[in-house]
Backbone:
């Protein structure tokens, strides 16, 4: 990467996020998200059967998403599949590697190297500057699959004295929290290659309210809003059925380490005081 900005690409996910679909059309849209292969390699009839709807509804869905027809939508689905990692369902059907340990080590070492090599230093510096600005409220919006890493990241932000709000739960709960977003706040979105429509909508809501996007993603180009913000990509190939989060953890560690370094000696004193409190209370033992 040579720029902090990634040009907008009208992917299927972004079209879905920006479209107002009827319940009938939404049935086909959901199929695009949960089983894109069914569309990429199907016919109008097979997609209609798979989605539990009619063939005219499939065609209308393609048109509603801005395509010239089903054939155009199918071409787009095939193109996206060829550019991104295999889905969980495809990977789990693949033959097992000759050596699970060797394959896992090679894959995860490659993820670490690819993630660090793929980070643009200018973009990284701007992201750290945004995260270090206490005048900007920090909102952290993870996908369902990345909630564990996000929760740990937010805990570490708090330990460093940086207040952050973790946005998890129902769309109603998250949108209620985001009603407090102010212009200039920072919304950090954390996601793997396949986007959840609710997360796309919630990030768009925050950005529309004036929040600056910091997008940590395993998918570039991305359907998430990036204009005026920062994109930090990570590698997520896996030898197993699910996307690897090792590259994401590397990015999270890098952000925490950089923020800690910028806040010395405040962080050193804060952590020493916390360590003493934990020891006195018996919360931690050697």
Residues:
């Amino acid at each position: 990467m040579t720029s902090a900005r990634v040009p907008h690409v009208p992917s299927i996910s972004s079209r879905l996020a920006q479209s107002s679909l009827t319940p009938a059309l939404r049935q086909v849209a959901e199929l695009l998200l949960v089983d894109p292969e069914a569309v990429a390699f199907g016919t109008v009839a097979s997609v209609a059967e798979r989605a539990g709807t009619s063939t005219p509804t499939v065609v209308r869905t393609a048109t509603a998403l801005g395509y010239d027809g089903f054939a155009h939508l199918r071409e787009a689905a095939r193109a996206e599949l060829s550019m991104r990692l295999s889905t969980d369902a495809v990977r789990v059907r693949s033959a097992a590697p000759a050596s699970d340990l060797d394959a896992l080590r090679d894959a995860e070492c490659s993820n670490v190297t690819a993630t660090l090599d793929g980070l643009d230093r200018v973009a990284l510096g701007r992201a750290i500057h945004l995260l270090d600005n206490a005048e900007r409220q920090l909102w952290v919006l993870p996908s369902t699959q990345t909630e564990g890493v996000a929760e740990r990241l937010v805990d570490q932000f708090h330990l460093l004295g940086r207040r952050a709000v973790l946005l998890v739960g129902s769309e109603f709960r998250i949108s209620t929290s985001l009603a407090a977003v102010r212009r200039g706040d920072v919304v950090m979105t954390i996601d793997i290659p396949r986007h959840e429509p609710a997360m796309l909508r919630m990030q768009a809501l925050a950005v529309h309210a004036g929040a600056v996007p910091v997008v940590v993603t395993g998918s570039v180009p991305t359907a998430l809003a990036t204009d005026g913000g920062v994109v930090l990509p990570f590698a997520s190939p896996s030898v197993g059925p699910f996307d690897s989060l090792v590259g994401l953890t590397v990015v999270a560690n890098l952000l925490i380490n950089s923020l800690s370094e910028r806040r010395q000696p405040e962080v050193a004193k804060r952590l020493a005081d916390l360590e003493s409190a934990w020891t006195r209370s018996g919360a931690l033992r050697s």
Notes: The longest helix spans residues 100-118. The chain has two domains: 12-83, 100-280. The radius of gyration is 21 Å. Residues 1-9 have pLDDT under 50 and may be disordered.
